[in-house]
Amino acid sequence: EKWDKDLLAFAESKRTKNPVLWLGDLNVAHTNLEVWNDGAKHLPKQAGVTPQERASFQSQLDENGYIDAFRQLHPTAQGCYSYWSQRAGNREP
User: Fold this and answer.
1) Three-state SS for 80?
2) Are the beta carbons of 36 and 84 closer than 8 angstroms?
3) What's the confidence (pLDDT) of residue 77?
């Protein structure tokens, strides 16, 4: 929670003079559409998809006027992932 709040405070401090684009791989799948195995028993305990991480990320978007640009443009798209576990053999390198 502290990291999220600190990052948001930094972005907001820059926003007073210029628009802010918040880009990057933030390592959180905040909706079920971002997870290929939605419903798997281990997900609530896995980094990036815990209920706390998802809620924190969503509140950062909702409370501060930021949007998930991909979801804004493609609200129901499925299978568009930026991460595949090499170790788990989800996808070949």
Assistant:
1) coil
2) no
3) 93
Which residue intervals of the chain are DSSP H helices?
2-15, 51-64, 69-73
Six-digit token string for 2? 């502290």
Amino acid occupying residue 7 = L
pLDDT above 80 for 85: no
Token couple for 86: 């090499």
CA dihedral in degrees (54, 90, 68, 62; nearest 10)? -10
Residue pair 49/28 in contact (Cβ under 8 Å)? The answer is yes
Amino acid 88: pLDDT: 66
pLDDT 10s digits, 11-22? 889 988 889 888
Whole-angstrom distance, CA of residue 81 vs CA of residue 22: 18
CB 71 within 8 A of CB 32: no
